[in-house]
Amino acid sequence: MRRTLLASVLLAVALSLLPGCGFHRRGALVMPAGLEPIRVVSNTEYSPVATGVERALRRQGIAIADAAASDVAILNIGRERFGQGPIMAENRSRTQEYVATYRVTIRLRAADGTIVVPEQTVSLDREYVVDTRLPIGTPAEQDLLEEELRRDMVDAVLRRIDAALR
């Protein structure tokens, strides 16, 4: 009973100190007038990032325009590039550490044609280690890493738009 009470008190104290350190819970993306409804357009057919951004915007209550609608804001997601390269090699010139890079170019235009977010590149990097003695599982791990980067890219694009609108 005492432990539970002590843990509750410590948790309450810790939570009361969070706002003082600058921590704030992330809120929903708020679109100003003229940016709703929004259409998400991609240069890549079946883009997982465009699909993910559209789903995230819907979850936040932002109206999504269909492809036939005119006079709507357009979020253009273009030039998705995924690449990887070596960082470090071991003594026998076998690569052990790699970096995976995922880059997406975005631009947001309001319904009246003004550029709200100028064209810019959002880039994510992940470093990972490959055990050269155990090559089994490496392709599956790379697929998982690529999927995680795509998921993180959706959040990064939304944060970039949110920062530009503030």
Count of runs of 4 or more consecutive helical residues: 3
**Share of residues in helices:** 25-40%
| SS elements, strand count | 4
Beta-strand share of residues: 25-35%
Radius of gyration over alpha carbons? 21 Å
Largest sheet: 4 strands, mixed
Q: Give the termini distance in whole angstroms.
A: 47 Å
What does this structure look like?
The chain is of the alpha+beta class. It has 3 helices and 4 strands; from the N terminus they run αβαβββα. A 4-stranded mixed sheet has the order 1-2-3-4, with helices on one face. The longest helix is centred in the last third of the chain and has 28 residues, at 138-165. The termini are far apart. The model has no long low-confidence stretch (mean pLDDT 80). Belongs to the LptE lipoprotein family. Together with LptD, is involved in the assembly of lipopolysaccharide (LPS) at the surface of the outer membrane. Required for the proper assembly of LptD. Binds LPS and may serve as the LPS recognition site at the outer membrane. InterPro entries: LPS_assembly_LptE. This is LPS-assembly lipoprotein LptE.
Brief sketch in words of this structure:
With 166 residues, the chain is α+β, with helices and mostly antiparallel strands.
List keywords for this structure.
lipopolysaccharide binding; 31% strand; 3 helices; 166 residues; palmitate
Give me the secondary-structure topology:
Elements: H1 2-17, E1 38-42, H2 48-59, E2 73-89, E3 95-109, E4 115-129, H3 138-165
Parallel strand pairs: 1-2
Antiparallel strand pairs: 2-3, 3-4
Helix pairs in contact: 2-3
